[in-house]
Amino acid sequence: MSARLRRRLATEWTTLVPLLAVVLLVLTWGRELPGMVVVAITLVLAGAVLAAVHHAEVVAHRVGEPFGSLVLAVAVTVIEVALIVTLMLDGGDKSATLARDTVFAAVMITCNGILGLSLLVGSLRHGTAVFNPEGTGAALATVATLATLSLVLPTFTTSKPGPEFSTVQLTFAAVSSLILYGLFVTTQTVRHRDYFLPVSRQDKGLTGGEYTGGHAEAPSTRTALISLGLLGLALIGVVGLAKGVSPTIESAVETAGLPHAVVGVIIAMLVLLPETIAAVRAARRDQVQISMNLALGSAMASIGLTIPAVALASLWLTGPLVLGLGNTHMVLLALTVVVSALTVVPGRATPLQGGVHLVLLAAYLELAINP
User: Fold this and answer.
1) I need a labelling partner for 205 at 20 to 30 A (CA). Which of 41, 74, 77, 294 fits?
2) Which residues are in the Sodium/calcium exchanger membrane region domain (predicted)?
């Protein structure tokens, strides 16, 4: 098969699948779905994930790093936040912990799952995974601060009973989240952009690898804009269809006798699939810094955009808004921050570091199943 034919086929299916996903979403939204329709939705959802990754890479190639990673992370998070707020407005008291559970799941999946898998793939393929500790360390520090302010402090405050913020405290957390996220984006894209670009092995005094960034011809502005629009459609399809199959997932979880929190974990994994695939593909190309940008950027966006959104939504919510983590989850978060700091400081990683992060993710999933 010629290269031109392969590009044409890729263009055709990555254009059709996002459109099909949105049409299917409109036709099935809010309806009870039979088994065969759920199977069809799942197949389209998988195709939409792959299409989203393709269009994100096209946009990233046009705008360059770290803007490319930022586009995918923010696009997924904005749609995810919209879904969370919609579910909270419709869910009543049963959605009191929805924002907390979703954000914490996103943090654990990104900081341990995506990051660990990227380090493992990059180090196994190239001997050592290399990245920039200045940029990655700044991202990790911001994630740790946002997570502590938004998810840990509510457990210890006393203005309201239970792990909740008072109105003033919630406002402070929301404003702080926006300020920190804005400062980080400015640092990443303007003042210290070079801290977030892929590094060469020669700079680290290493040999080998196959760094390939910047050699292929960049797509045109028109192509990038089309891909940006199709990326948005694909992500709307991914998140919306994931919500559509959630009742089936919920029934399967209940039939298996698993805690209801497992549903949120599964949905979070589906929503974060585009970042996961994009990060692993970057690690295979020896561009682990892009993988780190995606993992930590997604965690940061998830907290920095969700908390202000739910704070605004709380003006209309009648039930409680529980943000504070339990003891088990606080231990996992603290361990994740410490291990991540030790991973980031050297600026290089072996399969051991990737394995440690994946074990932490496995511990989180195990405790979600058997609390």
Assistant:
1) 294
2) 37-189, 227-368
Cβ pair 254, 93 in contact under 8 A: no
Q: Can you tell me the distance from the alpha carbon of 292 to that of 307, in angstroms, rounded to the nearest whole number? A: 23
Instruction: Tell me whether residue 333 is exposed, middle or buried, using C-beta atoms within 10 angstroms of its C-beta: 0 to 12, 13 to 18, 19 or more.
Output: buried
CA distance 156 to 171: 17
pTM across the whole model: 0.81
- Name the residue with higher pLDDT: 79 or 181: 181
3-class DSSP assignment, residue 20: helix
Contact 140, 296 (CB under 8 A): yes
CATH architecture entry for 3-369: Up-down Bundle (1.20)
- Quick check: 213 pLDDT over 50? no
Assigned token pair, 272: 């974060």
Compute the chain's Rg from CA coordinates. 20
CA distance 230 to 245: 22
Q: Rounded to whole angstroms, what are the CA distances from 43 to 56, 73, 241, 362?
A: 20, 23, 10, 26
pLDDT of residue 331 exceeding 80: yes
CB atoms within 10 A of CB 216: 8
Question: Is the pLDDT reported for residue 182 higher than 60?
Answer: yes
